[in-house]
Every structure is written in structure tokens, then in C-alpha cells.
Amino acid sequence: MKKYILFISILISLTSCLTLDDNLYNKTKLSEYKLDNYTGEVDFQLDYSYFIPSSMIHLFTLNSKSTDETSATSIYALYIGDIAKIATDTVIMYCHGNKDHMDFYWQRAKLLANTKGKNHYGVLMIDYRGYGMSEGKPTENGLYADVDAALLWLKNNGLSNNRLMMYGFSMGTAPATKLSAGNYSLKPSKLILEAPFASAETMIQDGSGLAMPGSFFTTLKINNAEEIKSVTQPFCWIHGEADDFLNINTHGAIVYANYKGTYKEAHRIANAGHSNIPQTMGFQNYLNVVGNFIVKQ
């Protein structure tokens, strides 16, 4: 009985971020995107100085097809910037976490759109299948396919590898790392990971404290600590030292240590938890870290 209660408590605790299989999936859906008019919970709220004009906000759908699908899934995407200038602009591909949808992460995307000045860089964000207004059901293969569909859209609009920056937060660090390491529609020139997890296995072990394989709890095979070994692009790691969801030492620090590429930098943020790094750092300090890394030669 005690083990059963513990198992249930683990499933509940994990639903806040890493939840892709049937037991853990967060089923938050939307009937419309409200962005600045969204009144639900968010990690932080930006003031008017970060406002993005409607002419720079583009909501559209993409067709995504994973390796185990026979037909494509329609997912929603949001681009901040001038689509006509993608062929010459630098673009940040932002892979959000598991909690909720693009309305929840709108403030984060809007913040990134203010890196090095307003709309200096384009920002692309998607809702993975099953999230927000995107169709389908979340799967690990689908997660990678959805981000690759976004990269293909950028490529078709003229973006080249050297002007693509990949940014992953929490669960979004999985596709960000996977697509940076492998051969997909575009090869990002730099990788930024905020609060990454080492692997699904490590997360289960940290959460359960049981001498049982992670496969008992989840079918996820995600392993950032292993994938990062194949990333050669410059790498920026940001993690809160007070992160009580993804422990900085058992997760982020392992990913950082396993990277063997051309350049890496670490930003361990004192007093920051899992979801409050930008506001703990101060928004401008956070943007300085991101912006300086992007332009670093």
C-alpha cells in the first residue's frame, strides 16, 4: 500500500514539467490563443517596454509527421518578427516546457524578442502536438518531429544554419539537444539550455528514491546527458541553484560536464528555482547573457 501511495505521489509531482506518456501527460488545451490578453497563470508578466506590435506577431499552423506516423499532424506555431526578413535575420527557435501552452510561455518568447533591442532577432515557438490548439497526442518521436517541422519552415523562408540559435527550457531541452546533435532540416549554430534534465531515468530516480528502473514509471527514452556528447556547437547552460524540480547537480551539471564541443559557458543562478530564472537574474541581465552568447565569436 505504501508503495502504491508513493507511486501516485510521484506521478502527481512529475506532471509539472516532464509529462509525455499516457500516465503523466498534462492535457491542457485551448480554443484560442490570447497572448497579451491571456489571464491564466504565467511565470512572470513583462511591462509595456517589452510590448511587441501586432505586425510582428504571426500565428499559423504547420504539418508535422513523425517517423512512426502515416499521416501528418497539424500543430500551431508563432513567429515574432518580420517573416520577409528571415532570409537575413538571426532567429531563436524557442522550445518551451511541458506546462500548458504558448499563451503560458508568451512572456518568455516576448522577452527573447527583446534580446539586443526590440525585434533584433526573430523568435519562433510552437505548441507540440496535443498542446494548446495543436492536434494529436504527445509522443517522444512527435516532439522531435514537431520542432523539425518548425526548422523546415524557417529553412523554406530562407534561414541558414549559421543564423539559427536553438533555445530549450525544461522539457524543451530534449528536442533542442536532440536536433542540435543530429541531422535535421537545419543545424543550429548555437545551443542554449535553461534548466535541462539529464535523462528521464535520472528524473524518475531523483523523484522516487526507489531502486527500480525508470521504465516502471514511464516509457520515455529521452537522454540529454548522452545526446549532448554529440553536440559540437557552442553551448550555454543556465540553471537555478535552488531548482527543486530538476536538481542542478544531478541534472544540469551532468549535461554541462558531458559536453565536449568547441565552447561552453555556465550560468548557475543563485536563489533561482526551476521557473523563475529570468526574474531572479533581472530581465536585462538575463537578456545580456543570452545576447552576449549569441554574438560571441
Commentary on this structure:
With 297 residues, the protein is of the alpha/beta class. It has one domain (2-295): Rossmann fold, CATH 3.40.50. Helix content is 31%, strand content 16%. It has nine helices and eight strands. The protein has helices spanning 2-14, 102-112, 140-156, 173-181, 200-208, 224-227, 248-258, 277-281, 283-295, and strands at 57-64, 73-80, 91-95, 122-126, 164-169, 190-194, 235-240, 264-269. It has an eight-stranded mixed beta sheet, with helices on both faces. It is globular and about 40 Å long. The termini are far apart.
Domain unit count: 1
Largest sheet: 8 strands, mixed
Instruction: Output the structural class.
Output: alpha/beta
* CATH-defined fold name: Rossmann fold
What's the name of the CATH homologous superfamily? Alpha/Beta hydrolase fold, catalytic domain
Count of helices?
Answer: 9
Strand order of the largest sheet: 1-2-4-3-5-6-7-8
Order of helices and strands: HEEEHEHEHEHHEHEHH
Give a concise summary.
This protein is an alpha/beta fold.
